[in-house]
Structures are given as C-alpha cells and as structure tokens.
Amino acid sequence: MSLNKLLILVIVAAVSALLIGGAAFSGEKPSYVGAVKCKPCHNTTKSGKQYSIWAGNPHAKAYETLLSDHSQKVAKEMDIADPAKSETCLKCHVTAYSAPAEQKAETYKMEEGVSCEACHGPGELYKTMKVMKNRELALENGMILPDEALCKGCHNPESPTYKEFKFAEAAEQIAHPTPTE
Ligand code: HEC
Ligand code: HEC
Ligand code: HEC
Ligand code: HEC
Fold it and tell me: Which of 44, 84, 96, 101 has its CA 20 to 30 A from that of 110?
C-alpha cells in the first residue's frame, strides 16, 4: 500500500469515528430532574410561586390518586391488580413514566405525579440561570411551552375516567403566571 493510500484510509477512519461519535452525542436526550430542581427559582414571590401553585393542583397528586379506593375500583374493571404499578395507569399519572431509565436523574421521583417536566420538557439542560433567562436558548435546550395538543396527550378518552377537556378553562384552572411589574 502506498503512503498516500494509507493516509487516506487513516483520514476516512478518523472522520467516520467523529461522525458516529457525534451522532451518538446529539442523539442523547436530556434527563428529567424533578420539580424539586425547579423549586429554588420558581417558588419566590417575584417568580410567581409556580412550585406552590403546582403542588396545590391535582397534577401533583396524580400518583397518589392511583393508591386510592376509587383507582382500585377503576383498575379492577380493567383486570389490573395494582394501578400504582401498572404502566396502563402510570403513563398518564406520572411524568415521563415511559422514558428510559437513563433519562431519569436521581432526583426524579414518580411520587411527584404529573410535574413541571411533563409539560415543560426534561430540565437537565435548560434549568441553569443563563439558559432560563434566554427563551430561545431554553427552547433549544429542551424547554417546552405547552399547547392544547400536549395536554391532550393525557386528557383524552383513553383515560378510564375521561371528562371532556376544554383547554381554555383547564389552562385557567392550573395557571401559574410570572407576575408583571
Ligand atoms: C437557576 C434558577 C432557575 C431554575 C433552577 C429553573 N428556572 Fe425556569 N426560569 C428562571 C428564570 C429567572 C425565568 C424567567 C426568565 C425571564 O423571563 O427572563 C425562568 C423561566 C421559566 C419558564 C418560562 C419561559 C418563557 O420563556 O416563558 C419556564 C416554563 C420555566 N422557567 C420552567 C422551569 C422548569 C420546569 C424548571 C425545572 C426543571 C426550571 N424552570 C428551573 C429560573 C430558573
Ligand atoms: C402526563 C399527563 C398529563 C398532561 C400532559 C396534562 N395532564 Fe392534566 N391531569 C392529568 C391527570 C392524571 C389528572 C388527574 C389528577 C388526579 O386527580 O389525580 C389531571 C388533572 C387536570 C386538571 C384537574 C381537573 C380534572 O379534570 O380533574 C386540570 C384542570 C388539568 N389536568 C389541566 C391540564 C392542562 C391545561 C394541561 C396542558 C397544559 C394538562 N392538564 C396536561 C394528566 C395530565
Ligand atoms: C390517557 C391518560 C390516562 C390513563 C391511561 C389513565 N388516566 Fe386516570 N386520569 C387521567 C386524566 C386526564 C384524569 C383527569 C380527569 C379525566 O379526564 O379523566 C384522570 C383522573 C383519574 C382519577 C380521578 C377521577 C376522579 O375525578 O375522581 C382516577 C381515580 C384515575 N384517573 C384512575 C386511573 C387508573 C386506575 C388508571 C389505569 C387503569 C388510569 N387512571 C389511567 C388520565 C389517564
Ligand atoms: C399540566 C401542565 C403544566 C405543569 C405540570 C406545569 N406547567 Fe408551567 N405552564 C404550563 C402552561 C400551559 C403555561 C403557559 C404557556 C404559555 O403561556 O405559552 C405554563 C407557563 C409557565 C411559566 C411561564 C409563566 C409566564 O407568565 O410566562 C413558568 C415560569 C412555568 N410554567 C413554570 C412551571 C414550573 C416551575 C412548574 C412545576 C413546579 C410548572 N410550570 C408546571 C403548563 C404546565
């Protein structure tokens, strides 16, 4: 083999390794970190106390609901023994239940029910002050500003207790705006 050919082979190998490595890197998804990581910045009066508002909403109790007698009854009719252990129920009553384990940080807790990241996306990369202060950057790093379609991922007739979902009213019920000065 000539030196030139060898050189070309080496370059091709190096570029392929870079491409494959790069693809694997960009394919990695940010992790779910839990509402506890949003709390320090989003529970101040200035921020609008989003954490406390969420904690007082039914979403924060969505996992607990699966431990209730009502849930037992609903589950029994569907031949499910334990709703709090069944993916059929957990996929809507818990944040990102079906996401792979490596996308769940140690601070992720199923017990938080439907928490911030169920609507705003996994927070690992956007939760720093520098990123949060720049909406465009936050969106690039996985932050979601949810719309009706996102809600209907759970608020749909697949829910065994489905109630008609009226987006405007429902959004008003869970509103947690940043106060304007
Ligand atoms: C280090 C502090 C900090 C942490 C931690 C943090 N945020 Fe924020 N976040 C902010 C600040 C400050 C703003 C307001 C940015 C602005 O308007 O300038 C903000 C804005 C937002 C917005 C509105 C963005 C927009 O453009 O309207 C959402 C949604 C949000 N945060 C969600 C979250 C979630 C969910 C978490 C946890 C995963 C989180 N934040 C963690 C500081 C933080
Ligand atoms: C990951 C699934 C999921 C998503 C996404 C979701 N919800 Fe829910 N939501 C639930 C569950 C589960 C409950 C019932 C909680 C309970 O009572 O235990 C609920 C309850 C509610 C309630 C209380 C009234 C009721 O019908 O019981 C309102 C209001 C609501 N959601 C609004 C919204 C809005 C608005 C959005 C989108 C911005 C949204 N939800 C997105 C799962 C979800
Ligand atoms: C497609 C998403 C989805 C699935 C799957 C789901 N739920 Fe729900 N669940 C919801 C939503 C959204 C609500 C809020 C009210 C509504 O629209 O049903 C809710 C509310 C409830 C409530 C409270 C109803 C009330 O008003 O008292 C119970 C209990 C419940 N779910 C049990 C279960 C059980 C048990 C399972 C599994 C067999 C299950 N859910 C599966 C989305 C879902
Ligand atoms: C059920 C879905 C849902 C959950 C759970 C949720 N949010 Fe939101 N959030 C919304 C919606 C809908 C908006 C309004 C989006 C818009 O205006 O485009 C919003 C807006 C915001 C804003 C911007 C407020 C403003 O005035 O601009 C912040 C900050 C925020 N959420 C933080 C949080 C934090 C922190 C948590 C958890 C403690 C949380 N949210 C939980 C749906 C949710």
Answer: 44
